[in-house]
Amino acid sequence: EVQLVESGGGLVQPGGSLRISCAASGFTFSSYYMTWVRQAPGKGLEWVANIRPDANDKFYADSVKGRFTISRDNVENSLYLQVTSLRVEDTAVYYCARWGKDSSGWFLDYWGQGTVVTVSS
Amino acid sequence: QTVVTQEPSLTVSPGGTVTLTCASSTGAVTSGFYPNWFQQKPGQPPRALIYGVSNKHSWTPARFSGSLLGGKAALTLSGVQPEDESEYYCLLYDGRGWVFGGGTKLTVL
Question: Which of A107, A108, A109 to mutate to test the interface with B (most CBs of B within 10 A)?
C-alpha cells in the first residue's frame, strides 16, 4: 500500500525557516518524480515544486522560487521541503504527492494527509 | 503567469448530470496540457479522478468522465450521487510548471 506521511509543520515567525518532510512507503520511491502542493486556509490548491527521481532537476512555482528548496533522500525514502524567508501568505497545509506517468500523460495519484505550516508573529 | 479558470460553484440534483470546465489563459486546452481532475472533501487531501484528458484511475467511479470541450478540459458527472458533493480542482501543465484551477464547489441538492 502506497503511503505518504508528512511531518515537520508548525508555527513560525515571519522571516523564519522550517524543513518539512514526507516519508514514503509501499512503492519504489527512487523511481518516481515527487511534488509538494499547498493549500492556504479556505483557499484552493497551489503547486509548489517538483523533483526528479535522481534529484538532478527541480522545478518551482514563481511564488516560492529562491525561498523554498525541494530535496529527497532515496535511501531514507523521504522527500523534503526547506522553506525560508517565510511570509504570512505561506501559511498553508503542505501536501506531498507522487507523480505517475503513462502513455496518456502525467498524473498525481497518491497524496499524503498534509502538514500545517503557520506563519505568524 | 498562467491562470486556470473553473466555475466557482455549480448545483446539480441527485441523479442528474453536470459538466465542470477548466480553461487556460494561454489558449485552448489540449492533451499537451496533461489535464488532471481531483476531488476534495473538507479536511481531506485531494483524490485523483481523471488524467490525460479522459483516463480514469483504478478507483475512479464510472460516473466520472473527462473530455475536451470547446477549448477547455471538462469533467462530467453522470447520475450524480449525494456523496459527489465536493470541491473539484483541475490541474494543467503550462510548459513551465503546473497550475491548479481555483476549484468548483459542487452542491448536490
Answer: A107
